[in-house]
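Quick one, tokens below:
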């Protein structure tokens, strides 16, 4: 596993040659773990700051409605930080995965331009996410803590745009899974000799 990670990290710009399924999937597992840890850390930091302010306000004697409104205000900031953090992490993961995915495509005798299409879908999905950040923050901060019906109606009104963004976000994931498990070509192919690394 560590050899696969080391190999991929040392070949981040190498778009030629071939990678075996195990080399590719050990590296994908490594990237997934990094992404989960980074996202979890970001959430803990943002959520922790919000809760610390709420506890401090409650201790200072602020009434329950004011503390609830303060939490809603912090949620807007938390959503902004979380969404931007998610975009940055996704871009980083895309950059780190692109060359390995290209080599994995080559191993199954598929052209590397497929990786370019997958990256394109990912970038469109991220652009949609970025376009929704202000909208999501405004939606959350405009709702009063005791008005869940208004929140539900506002979310339903935006459902189509959010669904499109979510759907576009799954296309790259599905492409990586499908082409990542595609069987390797036995022996040499047009992209080079059969890989001998893990």
């Amino acid at each position: 596993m560590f050899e696969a990670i080391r190999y991929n990290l040392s070949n981040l710009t190498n778009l030629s040659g071939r990678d075996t399924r195990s080399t590719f999937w050990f590296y994908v597992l490594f990237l997934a773990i990094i992404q989960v840890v980074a996202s979890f850390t970001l959430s803990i930091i943002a959520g922790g700051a919000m809760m610390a302010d709420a506890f401090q306000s409650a201790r200072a004697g602020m009434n329950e409605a004011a503390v609830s409104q303060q939490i809603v205000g912090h949620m807007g900031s938390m959503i902004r930080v979380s969404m931007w953090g998610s975009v940055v992490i996704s871009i980083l993961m895309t950059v780190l995965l692109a060359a390995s995915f290209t080599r994995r495509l080559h191993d199954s005798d598929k052209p590397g331009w497929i990786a370019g299409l997958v990256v394109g879908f990912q970038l469109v999905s991220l652009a949609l996410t970025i376009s929704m950040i202000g909208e999501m923050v405004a939606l959350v901060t405009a709702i009063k803590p005791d008005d869940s019906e208004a929140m539900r109606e506002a979310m339903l009104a935006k459902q189509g745009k959010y669904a499109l963004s979510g759907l576009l976000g799954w296309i790259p994931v599905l492409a990586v899974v499908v082409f990542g498990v595609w069987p390797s070509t036995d022996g040499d192919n047009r992209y080079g000799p059969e890989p001998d690394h893990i």
